[in-house]
Amino acid sequence: MPAWRQRLTRVCEALGVLLFALLFGVFVVQVIARLVWGQPLTWTDEAAVILYTWLVLWGTTAICKPREHVAFDILFQQRPGLQRWVLCVACAGVGGLLLWALPGSLDFIAFMRRESTPVMGWPLHWVYAPFALMLAVVGLAYLWRALRLLGKHWRQVVAEFEARP
To answer: Which residues are 116's β-sheet partners?
Structure first.
């Protein structure tokens, strides 16, 4: 893996850790507010839901490797000679569908600019924006893998999808 990609991976993982730390911090504040002060804080529930959503989408986008995603690999495992082509069709299909959904999602996100969260008043387009990022990044990554499967280094791509020992 090139040095720039290792640094980018570390930055992405650090951002994931930061999102989790914020989520945990909000959770702790909520517990303290309920148990110590006897009065729940409404903004912590909303912040926790938003942070959890962002954390899941960020993890899917930037941290999870292909073999860590949900996969149905029965055909892939049963026919080793077909691995390359099954993966190529699957990657092209997944990438194509995610990118196909992107314009409609962007339109919905832009529409949600008018609305805001009930407690904190955050514009909802900021709440849903990570979904568009996930669609674009994961879609392009899968299309890139499909193209790489057509090249001479296709075995490296197949290895990315194989289960860990």
So the answer is: 123
**DSSP E strands: which ranges in 100-154?**
none
Q: What distance in Å separates the CA atoms of residue 161 and residue 49, rounded to the nearest whole number?
A: 31
DSSP 8-state assignment for residue 123: B
Region 66-84 average pLDDT: 66
pTM, entire model: 0.80
Contact indicator for 65, 106 with CB cutoff of 8 Å: no
Whole-number Å distance between alpha carbons of 88 and 134: 21
Q: For residue 16, how many C-alpha atoms fall within 13 Å in the half-sphere facing its CB?
A: 15
Sketch the domain layout of the chain as residue ranges: 1-63, 69-165
Structure tokens at 97: 């569908």
Separation between Cα atoms, residue 141 and residue 135, nearest integer Å: 10
CB atoms within 10 A of CB 141: 16
Reported as a pLDDT band with limits 50, 70 and 90, residue 160 is confident
Angle at 154 (CA atoms; ends 150, 158), nearest 5 degrees:
120
